[in-house]
Amino acid sequence: MNLHEYQAKQLLARHGVEVPGGQPCTTANEARAIAEKLFAEGQEMVVLKIQIHSGGRGKGVFKDGFKGGVHLCKSSEDVHKKAKAMLGNTIVTKQTGEAGRQVHTLLVASGEKIVDEFYLAVLLDRETSQPLIMASREGGVDIEEVAETNPDAIVKLQVDPLLGLQPYQARNLAKALGLGGKLIHSGAKLIAGVYRTWWECDATMVEINPLCIIESPNGTQKIAAVDAKISIDGNALHRHKDIAEMRDLNEEAELEVEASKFDLNYIKLDGNVACLVNGAGLAMATMDAIKHYGGEPANFLDVGGSASTEQVTAAFQIVLKDPNVKAILVNIFGGIMNCNTIAEGVVAAAQATQLKLPLVVRLEGNNVVAGRKTLADSGLTLIGADSMAEAAQKVVAEAAA
């Protein structure tokens, strides 16, 4: 589950990380009120940021021509004017696609005087199954670009998950970023707080870009997380009810939200061949097979290894809500999964929706004989297949026809 910037900063602040002052808002009047408070506290500028789950906000363009989802403002009236232009409007960035994202929330934060920028992230190294901290002196830019053009600029630290991040390791990272004097101590404290956020919140990634040295009006300097991105492991949300409540359904595809209600793993894609599969590995292999035979998958859909008839029926109904779908492939290998459960779900869904689209079914494994009999006795017009390759070939041909 992805979090908005303001939500990520709330979690970071909870774990001792310095973040700029600010608050989220959903109306232009609220934005003005927050800005007035920040200006009254002595801020010379405030920054107005749209809150969407997409990068490239600053360079985005709204569909009515208004440019930029991040703006520095010197007055509360300017904040009000720009907030009014952005809220409810749809912005297109390099990551949103042409459809763009509608803006529902803004973050109004203090516009800090930035002295220097860095990059910091904590994630899971899947090769070693250990936490990995990545830091770079080149902040404020895409880390992928840095990794490609100047990989030596990225410092990596493996953390023993039993021992956790040690103070000396945090200090060494602070020094690797070029911090000196008192900033070494505050930098190490911040790095420890970022790691603690990742660990205690069951995050898959915590990214601070940019991590900045900021200067106050009196000339003193401190290090703070000026921007933040956090992704939480969805499988751990039952341990974090407060974080689960941060989920923004406006940022998720409607069909994906519907699928989550039935504990289905569904991701909408751009093709016209719908897939209903049990197991993530088999689902990916099925999509590869469809591509291999010239088709385009319309979705990733894993019903899991122990789905009920009700879940299978729900899965079937969800893929049918995609107007791009021209044919459906059900590819089941029953290990834990009972093939007859899938067959009963397919029959129930097909009858309930009065299915008109071509349906290719490949069943193999646990209780497959009963499953095939259920399909044969249903009276539905089905196209059978004995292998995944055969099923993929047939469904691609049906979608093309």
Structure description:
The protein starts with a helix and ends with a helix. Strand 11 and strand 12 form a beta hairpin. The chain has three domains: 91 residues, 2-Layer Sandwich (Dna Ligase, domain 1), CATH 3.30.1490; 130 residues, 2-Layer Sandwich (D-amino Acid Aminotransferase, Chain A, domain 1), CATH 3.30.470.20; 147 residues, Succinyl-CoA synthetase domains (Rossmann fold, 3-Layer(aba) Sandwich). Helix content is 36%, strand content 25%. By secondary structure, it is of the alpha+beta class. The mean pLDDT is 90. The strands form five sheets. Strands 8, 9, 10, 11, 12 and 13 form a six-stranded antiparallel sheet that branches.
Itemize the secondary structure elements and their pairings.
Layout lengths: L4 H10 L7 E4 L2 H13 L5 E5 L10 E2 L7 E4 L2 H11 L3 E3 L8 E2 L3 E5 L2 E13 L4 E7 L6 H7 L4 E5 L8 H10 L5 H19 L2 E13 L5 E5 L3 E4 L8 H4 L9 H7 L4 E4 L4 E5 L2 H13 L6 E4 L6 H12 L6 E8 L4 H15 L5 E7 L2 H10 L5 E2 L3 H13 L1
Parallel strand pairs: 15-17, 17-18, 18-19
Antiparallel strand pairs: 1-7, 2-4, 2-7, 3-5, 5-6, 8-9, 8-11, 9-10, 11-12, 11-13, 14-16
- Supply the CATH superfamily name of the largest domain: Succinyl-CoA synthetase domains
Overall number of domains: 3
Q: What Rg do the Cα atoms give?
A: 25 Å
Summarize the biggest pleated sheet: 6 strands, antiparallel
At the third CATH level, what is the topology name of the largest domain?
Answer: Rossmann fold
> How large is the count of helical segments?
13
Low-confidence stretches: none
Number of E-type strands: 19
Per CATH, the class of the largest domain reads: Alpha Beta
**Second rung of CATH, namely the architecture of the largest domain:** 3-Layer(aba) Sandwich
Mean pLDDT: 90
Distance between the termini: 38 Å
Class computed from helices, strands and strand pairing = alpha+beta
Give the % helix. 25-40%
| Percent of sequence in beta strands | 25-35%
Shape: elongated
